[in-house]
Structure formats: structure tokens, C-alpha cells
Amino acid sequence: MADSLARIRREIIACRACPRLVAWREEAAAHPPRRFSGQAYWAKPVPGFGDSAARLLVVGLAPAAHGGNRTGRIFTGDSSGDFLFAALHRAGYANQARSVTRDDGLVLTGAYVVAAARCAPPDNKPTPAEFARCRPYLDREIAALPGLRVVLALGAHAFRASLDALAANGAPRPRPLPKFAHGAEAQMGRFVLLASYHVSQQNTFTGKLTPAMLDRVLRRARNSTVLPAYQPP
Fold first, then answer.
1. What is the pLDDT along the chain (233 residues), one digit of tens a residue?
2. Based on the number of CB atoms within 10 Å of its own CB, is 140 exposed (0-12), middle (13-18) or buried (19 or more)?
3. Where do the domains of the chain lie?
4. Which long-range contacts (CB under 8 A, 24 or more apart) does 210-218 make?
5. Of 104, 31, 103, nearest to 65 (Cα)?
6. Which of 1, 83, 96, 118 lies in the 20 to 30 Å Cα band around 211?
7. What is the pLDDT of residue 126?
8. How many angstroms separate the CA atoms of 185 and 181, rounded?
9. Kind of pairing, strands 185-188 and 191-196?
10. Measuring CA to CA, how many Å separate 178 from each of 167, 192, 195?
């Protein structure tokens, strides 16, 4: 039976493969900052979210300890998500510009959003082994999105994970291998891999990543996803 996003989602939520991350996500939930005191935390791996007919896949790094780890939806309830979903709204992929809770009415059209690591990590830094244990989920999500044409990686870690996951789905690796840079682009068979700086406060508060910069990358993504369906040579 063909893999499905619903099955992948169930497996992600039940995953306890990385003891360090299990302990950290549960520790964060048990000791929230004062502004979230009394809230019930998700405190499990955070699955992907969006349109099963997506032509654009956005890949982030990992859920925030008091963002996705709290709300149960990727990029929801933190400033990184505010920046990203505002941009997706401007680009026509989201029906609203903010994502506060997983039942706030946000709907994505033509886009699906995931993270390269599905659990909140200490210091926002998954280890190479943790990335490797999580990456098969990304491989399977790409395979379960039949209309997918563009992958937008947010940050260098997501860029490397996306490159490997596309190759695992039969996409030829470019030669020479592309290096991560904001606005980098690589054609991989029927897929286009795009890169942007991550939408973290470290980048957005300092001006390293501006709304206009992300808008330009999303316009490139939109232009690529409206091309005719890929026909193999």
C-alpha cells in the first residue's frame, strides 16, 4: 500500500528514537516560561502541516521548545512562524498571516511545511545522528506529495537534509554539489531546490533576512510551481 501523509504523521508523533530529544522536549514542557505557565504542551515530535496537493515544500530546522513543541504545529506560536507565515500569506500560500495555535484556522494551499528534525533540541542544535534518524520521514513525505516540484530549505541544515532526501527519491545530485547561500537554486530532475536564510530571530531581528528577501525567494518558488507538469526525458 502506498505511503500516506496520515501514516507518516502518526509515526512521527509516536517516535521516541532520540533519548536526548525526548528528555528535552518533555523538560521544556514541564518548566515553561512564565508567559506560557499553565498551558498544556504538545511535547511530542511535531509532524508536517499543509496541503496534500502541495507543489511547494518548506523545510525548517526543528520545532521551537516553546513554539511548535508547545502548540503541536510546526512554526506555530513563535516569532519565526510569524515571519514565515506572513510571507506565505503574501505569496498566496496561506489564508492568514499568523499562526498562534494549531486550531486557529490557518490553511495552506499549494504548500506543505515540515522540519528536518521533528523534536525541539537543546540550544536549537540537533546532532548529526539525530538529523540522520529523522531524515527518513522527510524522504517519505517527499514521496507522498505527488505534485511536489519545489523544495525551499530554510538554513544550511535544512538545505543539506533536503538535498539528501531529494536524492533518496531518485533526483540526480547536481555536480558540483551546490553550497548553501540565501537565494541558491539547484535543479534536481523534476524538482527545484531553493535556499533561504532561516526565519529565526537571529536572522530577522538583525536584518540578515528581511521580508523582501524571503518574498523574492517565494516568488521564484511560485514561478517554478506553476510550470507545466514535469515530463521525464
1. 468 999 999 999 999 999 999 999 999 999 999 999 999 999 999 999 999 999 999 999 999 999 999 999 999 999 999 999 999 999 999 999 999 999 999 999 999 999 999 999 999 999 999 999 999 999 999 999 999 999 999 999 999 999 999 999 999 999 998 999 999 999 999 999 999 999 999 999 999 999 999 999 999 999 987 544 434 44
2. buried
3. 5-31+45-225
4. 211/83, 211/86, 211/87, 211/90, 213/182, 213/183, 214/83, 214/84, 214/87, 215/87, 215/90, 215/91, 216/183, 217/152, 217/182, 217/183, 218/87, 218/88, 218/90, 218/91, 218/93, 218/152
5. 31
6. 118
7. 96
8. 9
9. antiparallel
10. 13, 12, 10
Name the maximum alpha-carbon separation found in the chain. 58
Exposure of 40 in the CB half-sphere (CA atoms within 13 A): 1
CA 192-195-198 angle, 5° bins: 145
Q: What size, in residues, is the chain? A: 233
Peptide bond before residue 32 is cis, with ω within 30 degrees of 0 = no
- Give me 24's grid cell: 528535552
CATH superfamily of domain region 5-31+45-225:
Uracil-DNA glycosylase-like domain (3.40.470.10)
Give the integer Cα–Cα distance in Å for 131 and 116.
Answer: 7
Between the two ends of the chain, the Cα-to-Cα distance in Å is 28
pLDDT at 229: 42
| DSSP run (H or E) holding 224 | helix 211-225
